[in-house]
Specification:
Elements: H1 11-24, H2 30-40, H3 47-58, H4 65-87, E1 92-93, E2 96-97, H5 99-103, H6 105-125, H7 129-152, H8 160-185, H9 190-214, H10 229-232, H11 238-246, H12 249-261, H13 267-276, H14 279-297, H15 305-319
Antiparallel strand pairs: 1-2
Helix pairs in contact: 1-4, 2-6, 3-4, 3-8, 3-15, 4-6, 4-8, 7-8, 8-9, 9-14, 9-15, 11-13, 11-14, 14-15
């Protein structure tokens, strides 16, 4: 399943955003241009800007300020990817070498800083204190989520609620902020703005939970994320958390040890444990519940092609295989 057919209602908008992203990447510093273009052109789904564009159109917005907002959201997201890959010591993303592998950690972190600061320069152009407040709060929550994830690394006792709190902060907060501001651009009521923010939050949780499921082989191998990355980094995600909750102490012990050690040699036994406990089915069901909540949040909006695009985006988030 591809995301592209879902973006038909905002196809022209997406092209405008891509052009804007490349224009705003421009810097007098050659390495920033080179590294930034490498990341932006790496074949990502552009899910977050698409989400902003669809949400704005579904909210009745007819201008073009949502292009700038979508580009800002993508810059913030890209900055977090650059920093994440350094922290996680990742070598591959979306089927190609990570920027830190090609140019080193220093260049990746500093280019991520550039993207953050460029995003805030662009925010000023929207001349809205609310935009600044919502995105400042979101970036702060993302940073808190990153630190929380670091604190929980190699912890086999991580509870599902704590895992979901990290997901809410690290991933869903930016989805939610983009949707809220898109509804604000459309002149929506406070209730509708909250409903659109709720849509984004639930969609973000669903998307990340499935992303974590893919690390244990839900996909068909045709995606860039390396199977086993989360285990190697000692990240306890929902498939493993659920499996551990269903296993007796003796069967859980080697999995707990593997998480503490980041031992990839235990990958096969962990996947067997996930299968025997139906932890993958549980994980996908939890993601589907979040997607259903996202769709339900859209009841506050009139039917439109853009609204249907948001519905299909929620379904895509849990059906994808990469």
């Amino acid at each position: 399943m591809s995301i592209q057919p879902l973006l038909k209602p905002v196809d022209k908008d997406m092209r405008a955003v891509d052009a804007l992203i490349r224009a705003r990447l421009n810097s007098d510093v050659i390495l920033i241009n080179t590294l930034g273009e490498y990341i932006i052109s790496s074949g990502g789904k552009r899910l977050r800007p698409a989400l902003v564009l669809l949400a704005a159109r579904a909210s009745g917005y007819a201008g073009d300020k949502h292009h700038l907002l979508a580009a800002i959201i993508e810059f913030i997201h890209t900055a977090t990817l650059l920093h994440d890959d350094v922290v996680d010591e990742s070598t591959m993303r979306r089927g190609q070498e990570t920027a830190n592998t090609v140019w080193g950690n220093d260049a990746s972190v500093l280019t991520g800083d550039f993207l953050y600061s460029r995003a805030f320069q662009m925010m000023v152009e929207l001349e809205s204190f609310d935009v600044m407040r919502v995105l400042a709060d979101a970036t702060n929550r993302i940073a808190e989520g990153e630190v929380m994830q670091l604190m929980h690394a190699h912890n086999p006792d991580l509870a599902e609620a704590d895992y979901l709190e990290v997901v809410d902060r690290k991933t869903a907060s930016l989805f939610s902020a983009g949707c809220r501001l898109a509804a604000q651009l459309g002149g929506c009521s406070a209730e509708q703005q909250q409903a659109m923010a709720d849509y984004g939050r639930h969609l973000g949780v669903a998307f990340q939970v499935i992303d974590d499921a893919l690390d244990y082989g839900r996909g068909d191998g045709g995606y860039g994320k390396n199977v086993g990355d989360d285990l190697a980094e000692g990240k306890a995600t929902l498939p493993v958390i659920r499996a551990l909750a269903c296993l007796d102490a003796d069967r859980a012990a080697p999995i707990r040890t593997a998480l503490r050690d980041g031992n990839l040699d235990a990958m096969n036994s962990i996947m067997k444990a996930i299968e025997s406990t139906q932890a993958m089915e549980y994980t996908c069901r939890r993601a589907e519940e979040e997607a259903d909540k996202a769709i339900a949040s859209l009841a506050a909006f009139e039917e439109s092609e853009a609204k249907q695009g948001l519905v299909e985006l929620a379904r895509f988030s849990v059906q994808r295989r990469h």
